[in-house]
């Protein structure tokens, strides 16, 4: 018997099954399949399930329900049907294109809410998963010493469907007292991991003026209750000590799965007997589930400023002092049990039951517990011109990838919900609102692998005076560099596919300073001398032998990045990117958003090629573009002649093109001002930038002033833009607008 009789065609399947299959296809494969016949095409155009799955892919988003049900997310979205989700997604994307209207727009897209502060904000802040956190320095105006954190739930803004000009001219006003979290130490800074674990990690100092030193604590709290986190075996960990003479301490903290990565730096040099004393830049990897410090690496003061999780197992660590590039670190497994008893002793001391770790100074580079992380790749920065020096590289990428789920998290989450339903006193943090059941929580979130990596780079230029003598700190330059996580991962994977898996260096090998090429050693780099802590900690750390570390030259990976070298995106804050979007203000103080979603870029290119407003009618038989995206978009939107009988075939605009797309402009080259700045700083050639589409408001400055839309700075997350207003005397935030998309 022939086996072909047993084969089943996809056309024989029930329509519900075909729809289910379509919803899992990549959008390119979906467009190919629906060309098979009219039956499959009819299913494609008539099914909201398929249309929603396609819309998520085109927007680069993931449905929150999927993340919540598989245990990745601690948050859940409102339970609404597919048609409502599709309508909400379309409204959301349209709002990002319009940005609050201006000009001829009647529909303003986003919803404006003004929030007034009833506390004195300190320098501490964070923004993640719809939660805005600000420090409260109470009455300590001079030092802004902070023991209290204030929490504001941004998802409660814009819950009503108000998207007209009236809402923008007279927005809703919020003037309540924010819920707070208080710790017994002086807070340095915080990090949040809300979507995975409802976790806030707080680094604080307990001063001892008699010994002129500080004890460093790590507090692990659950945001929804303000109580010690139930998954943390030790919710208050002693990390070690720091000396007062090291100067002001700064930290950066990120959490993915069980891994908590903490970077501690000290600034503000103090000269003592002609020697410079400063703590080492210290990078810690901690398993926050059981409170163990897994690994510690130290480097010269002012080598690191920040880092980014490239994936749950890899870390991007920009180094601007010697290597002048981005190292990729492979993180060890933190869930493996300790290998020897010494780890257990350290574990006891971290919880306060011993004194081994508490007596250690964390910024001591030659301590026995330091070990370099494994470097597996390097992305060098372009070579600087003489008399130009890096003085800082800050970093951010939001959202973070999801890591390994805790085995008890589902049970803990269920217990928490039960308690919150029966014991309202545990819910005091959010004014009787459970964090997992917030107000207007959007249905989807950006994919972490597509999110932008943002590096905020500052440079110092040495300028000669008329007498020919050089002076430092005369000219300061600030630029931002953006690229996508996926691009960096793809470059690494491509390299290893072509060259094979290379055993990366243990990075404990010694490399002599003479190994550095001239391009790695800038003339008159005073920081090489001033930032070396000579007296307290002994010799400097062994330099890394970078000959064994694979790298991709700047002229290759620079094609997947973009410098922002004008004042458009100048900001005091690093929180100016989320997902694939990057915000700024133009010279008229209108909000500008750059969207790096490559699908959106191709759609705008396609729309511009066929839209009569952008171009005359295409010549008969000519193609809109040679880009393969034209075929994809043509299939998606059924671009066809209005009638085969017409002698002159007119183009019919796709159904997805509306007036909101007229506000988008392709940006695929640097402006003259940007090129001038880049050529002034860098010796290497700067390749064409990563293309993006730009949306902007279209208000006159007077209109912005009349409506109260003149902001001192901007923040952004996946769902909204926040416009900040400062007090002119103190520089503190006094109010902010929430523009919910």
Structural commentary:
The structure is a single chain. The chain has 741 residues and is of the alpha+beta class. Among the domains are: 1-46, no CATH class; 60-109 and 566-615 and 657-741, no CATH class. Helices cover 21% and strands 29% of the residues. The strands form nine sheets. A five-stranded mixed β-sheet has the order 6-2-34-33-32, with no helix packed on it. A five-stranded antiparallel β-sheet has the order 27-28-29-31-30. Strands 3-4-5-7 form a four-stranded antiparallel β-sheet, with no helix packed on it. Helix 4 (48-59) packs parallel to helix 6. The chain is globular and about 80 Å long. Residues 334-361 are annotated as: Disordered. Residues 7-55 form the F-box domain.
List the helices and strands and how they pair.
Layout (H helix, E strand, L loop, with lengths): L14 H8 L4 H7 L4 H9 L1 H12 L1 E3 H6 L12 H17 L12 E6 L4 E8 L2 E6 L11 E6 L11 H5 L2 E3 L5 E3 L3 E8 H4 L1 E10 L4 E10 L13 E8 L4 E9 L2 E9 L2 E3 L2 E3 L3 E7 L4 E8 L8 E4 L2 E6 L5 E6 L10 H10 L23 E7 L7 E9 L12 H14 L21 E3 L5 E13 L5 E15 H15 L27 H4 L23 H4 L3 E4 L12 E2 L2 E5 L5 E5 L2 H13 L18 H9 L26 E4 L4 H10 L10 E5 L4 H6 L6 E4 L3 E7 L6 E8 L1
Helix pairs in contact: 4-6
């Amino acid at each position: 018997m022939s086996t072909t009789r047993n084969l089943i065609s996809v056309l024989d399947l029930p329509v519900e099954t075909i729809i289910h299959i379509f919803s899992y296809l990549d959008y390119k494969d979906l467009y190919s399949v629906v060309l098979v016949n009219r039956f499959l095409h009819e299913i494609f155009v008539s099914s909201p399930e398929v249309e929603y799955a396609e819309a998520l892919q085109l927007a680069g988003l993931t449905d929150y329900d999927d993340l919540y049900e598989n245990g990745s997310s601690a948050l859940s979205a409102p339970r609404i049907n597919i048609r409502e989700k599709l309508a909400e997604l379309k409204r959301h994307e349209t709002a990002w294109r319009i940005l609050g209207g201006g000009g001829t727009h009647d529909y303003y897209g986003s919803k404006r809410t003004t929030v007034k502060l009833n506390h004195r904000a300190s320098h501490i802040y964070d923004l993640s998963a719809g939660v805005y956190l600000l420090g409260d320095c109470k009455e300590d105006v001079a030092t802004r010493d902070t023991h209290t954190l204030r929490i504001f739930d941004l998802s409660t803004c814009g819950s009503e469907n108000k998207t007209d000009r009236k809402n923008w001219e007279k927005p809703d006003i919020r003037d309540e007292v924010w819920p707070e979290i208080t710790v017994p130490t002086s807070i340095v800074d915080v990090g949040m991991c809300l979507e995975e674990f409802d976790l806030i990690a707080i680094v604080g100092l307990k001063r001892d003026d008699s010994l002129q030193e500080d004890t460093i604590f790590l507090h692990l709290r659950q945001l929804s209750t303000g109580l010690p986190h139930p998954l943390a075996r030790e919710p208050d960990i002693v990390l070690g000590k720091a000396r007062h003479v090291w100067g002001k301490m700064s930290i950066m903290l990120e959490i993915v799965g069980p891994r908590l990565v903490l970077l501690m730096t000290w600034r503000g040099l103090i000269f003592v007997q002609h020697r410079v004393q400063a703590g080492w830049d210290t990078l810690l990897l901690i398993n926050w589930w059981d409170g163990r410090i897994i690994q510690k690496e130290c480097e010269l003061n002012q080598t690191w400023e920040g880092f980014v999780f490239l994936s749950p197992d890899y870390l991007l660590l920009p180094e601007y002092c010697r290597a002048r590039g981005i190292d990729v670190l492979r993180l060890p497994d933190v869930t493996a049990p300790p290998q020897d008893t010494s780890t257990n002793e350290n574990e006891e001391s971290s919880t306060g039951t011993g004194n081994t770790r508490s007596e250690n100074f964390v910024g001591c580079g030659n301590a026995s517990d330091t070990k370099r992380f494994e470097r597996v790749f390097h992305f060098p920065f372009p070579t600087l011109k003489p008399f130009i020096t890096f003085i800082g590289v800050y970093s951010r990428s939001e959202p973070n990838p999801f890591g390994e789920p805790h085995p008890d998290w589902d049970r803990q989450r269920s217990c928490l919900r039960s308690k919150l339903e029966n014991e309202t006193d545990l819910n005091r943090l959010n004014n009787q609102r459970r964090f997992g059941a917030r107000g207007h929580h959007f249905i989807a979130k950006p994919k972490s692998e597509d999110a932008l990596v943002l590096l905020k780079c500052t440079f110092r230029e040495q300028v000669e005076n008329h007498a020919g003598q050089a002076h430092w700190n005369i000219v300061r330059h600030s630029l931002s560099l953006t690229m996508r996580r996926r691009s960096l991962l793809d470059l690494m994977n491509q390299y290893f596919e072509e060259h094979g898996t290379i055993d990366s260096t243990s990075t404990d090998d010694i490399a002599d300073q003479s190994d550095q090429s001239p391009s790695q050693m800038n003339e008159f780099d005073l920081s090489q001398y001033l930032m070396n802590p000579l007296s307290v900690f002994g010799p400097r750390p062994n330099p890394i032998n970078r000959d064994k570390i694979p790298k991709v030259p700047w002229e290759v990976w620079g094609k997947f990045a973009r410098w922002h070298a004008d004042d458009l995106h100048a900001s005091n804050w690093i929180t100016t990117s989320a997902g694939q979007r990057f915000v700024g203000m133009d010279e008229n103080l209108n909000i500008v958003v750059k969207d790096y979603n490559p699908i959106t870029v191709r759609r705008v290119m396609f729309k511009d090629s066929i839209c009569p407003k952008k171009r005359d009618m295409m010549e008969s038989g000519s193609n809109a573009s040679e880009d393969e995206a034209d075929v994809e978009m043509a299939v998606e939107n059924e671009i066809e002649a209005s009638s085969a009988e017409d002698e002159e075939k007119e183009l019919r605009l796709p159904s997805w093109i509306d007036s909101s797309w007229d506000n988008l402009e392709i940006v695929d080259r640097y402006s003259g001002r940007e090129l001038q700045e880049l050529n002034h700083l860098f010796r290497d050639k700067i390749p064409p930038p990563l293309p993006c589409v730009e949306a902007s408001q279209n208000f006159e400055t007077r209109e912005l002033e009349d409506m109260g839309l003149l902001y001192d700075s901007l923040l952004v997350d996946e769902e909204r833009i926040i416009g900040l207003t400062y007090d002119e005397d103190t520089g503190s935030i006094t109010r902010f607008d929430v523009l919910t998309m």
